[in-house]
Amino acid sequence: MITHSEQLFQQARRLMPGGVNSPVRAWRAMGMSPRFIARAQGPHIIDVDGNVYLDFVGSWGPMIVGHAHPKVLEAVQKAAAAGTSYGAPTPAEVELADLLIDAVSGLEMVRLVNSGTEATMSALRLARAATGRKKIIKFDGGYHGHADTLLVQAGSGVLTQGIPGSPGVPEEIASLTISVAYNDLNAVVQAMEHHAGDIAALIVEPVAGNMGVVLPQPDFLPGLRRLCDQRSIVLIFDEVITGFRVAWGGAQKKFGVTPDLTCLGKVIGGGLPVGAYGGRRDLMEQMAPVGPVYQAGTLSGNPLAMAAGLATLKILAEPGTYEDLEEKGCYFTEQISALAHLMKLPLRINREGSMFTIFFTDCPVNNLVEAQTSDTGRFQQFFQAMLAQGVYLPPSQFEAWFVSLAHSPEDLQKALSAGEKALLDCK
Ligand SMILES: Cc1ncc(COP(=O)(O)O)c(C=O)c1O
Ligand SMILES: N[C@H](C=O)CCC(=O)O
Asked: pLDDT (tens digit, 9 = 90+) per residue, 6-25?
């Protein structure tokens, strides 16, 4: 019998490309059709057929306090009752900006936008304007949203679908982006020397999350800081995933390296559409209306997103939250590793706090090429076996899993029992 999800997917495919509004949701690499979600609560999402899943996607990162948290709902409802958008400044924007600047060392000023894509696109425009240079450096498998300049050797759905760039991005634009291997400072030096005097910015996920999770090696982020300083290149940390995920204050706090510009999104909107970019005051004061660099947004600083973001961050600011997230991420990944070891299955886990990826490979994963040694067929089997047991994972090898404050020890135990069976199934 056809399920309600399958019925909806058939209809959706006639109405929207691939039946979805973002490619990764179509589950193509998993050889299945996606579940359509009716609602979510705490660590669970529930599909339109009434199946309950333990969720490790967390809306691709934002749901760090769990779904439908009562404090977040209350804040959003209160904000909605006062009107959903004014196209004018509000006290909540000031409160969120103040909180972000206080927490994130690289922020002296901030501009709130509606998505991570807007944040990275605007940060790059600012860097180009400030330096008068055109080229940028990024890393293979790094995903920074879908602005033209950034769809070069990108991660996430672009990688999962095996598209190296994207038709529609003019060659003249793509050629301004130089992509090199993550964790490879020599490759960065070579790119900087080869394009000497032309590089405006270097953009990096300080912990990569879109080729699966890949950690920066100890000298990598300090090395990028040094190389950018030597050549007056604007260093941009894309903390859309890592901001307030890996630590209060983000990866820059955790690794002690301060970028010139920082991009945020996901967690700071508590599940509503949001993005932010900010950094050095001298750079940010080049943005209109103070300076000439233009960027705008009808719904930027939207009151509902501000309310959800503030409520989420206030929960995260409570004592012990990041310790709790660390403990859960650590416990789960150590147990899965131990199970795989007993079964003699090749498996590597990269983790930073509550974000991690399981790679089915023997090889340490420090860059895209190594991530691609993972057996994606095995990941597909694993995904299907987990789903059948009520555990919902990112539908791609090249994405991060997220644990939230709402995942209880019992939930993790359930996921581990499912994981044991799934590993046996894909042995
Ligand atoms: C690191 C990173 N940067 C930027 C983006 C773009 O954010 P958005 O999807 O909100 O446009 C994403 C996710 O999509 C991301 O993971
Ligand atoms: N990996 C992406 C963001 O982090 C997934 C979100 C999307 O593209 O829909």
From this structure: 999 999 999 999 999 999 99
What is the distance between the alpha carbons of residues 324 and 305, in angstroms, rounded to a whole number? 25
Which DSSP string do the residues of 218-272 spell out, in sequence order?
TTHHHHHHHHHHHHTPEEEEE-TTTBTTTBTTHHHHHHT---SEEEEEGGGGTTS
Tokens of 96: 């969120």
Cα end-to-end span (Å), the chain: 30
SS3 category, 167: coil
Contacts for 118 with CB less than 8 Å, ≥ 6 apart? 145, 275, 295, 297
Can you say whether residue 260 is alpha, beta or left, with left for phi > 0 and alpha for psi between -120 and 50 degrees? Answer: alpha
**Burial level of 280, CB count in 10 A (0-12/13-18/19+)?**
middle
pLDDT per residue over 146-157, tens digit each?
A: 999 999 888 888
22 lines ligand 2 (CB under 6 A): yes
Q: How far is CA 50 from CA 5, 7, 35, 403, in A?
A: 10, 14, 11, 22
C-beta separation of 35 from 47 below 8 A: yes
Question: What does the alpha-carbon distance between residue 334 and residue 371 come to, in Å, rounded to a whole number?
Answer: 19
CA of 190 to the centre of ligand 2 (A): 30
Mark residue 219 as left, alpha or beta (left: phi above 0; alpha: psi -120 to 50; beta: remaining): alpha
Amino acid (one-letter) located at 278: G
CA distances from 321 to 248, 292, 318, 353, 406 (A): 9, 41, 6, 11, 11
* Per-residue tokens: 377: 């067929």
Tokens representing 370?
Answer: 């190594």
Sign of CA dihedral 353, 237, 225, 107: negative
Mean per-residue pLDDT over the chain, rounded? 97
pLDDT at residue 372 tops 80: yes
- Please, what is the Cα angle at 235 between 144 and 22, to 5 degrees? 5
- Is the distance from the beta carbon of residue 310 to the nearest atom of ligand 1 less than 6 Å? no
Residue 395 alpha carbon to ligand 2 centre in Å: 11
Cα–Cα distance, 147 to 134 (Å, whole number): 15
Domains and CATH numbers, the chain: 4-68+319-425 (3.90.1150.10), 70-316 (3.40.640.10)
Beta carbon of 404 within 6 Å of any ligand 1 atom: no
Element containing residue 37 per DSSP (H, E): strand 37-41
Strand-strand pairing, 199-204 and 234-238: parallel
Distance of CA 230 to the CA centre of its chain: 29
- ipTM exceeding the 0.90 mark: yes
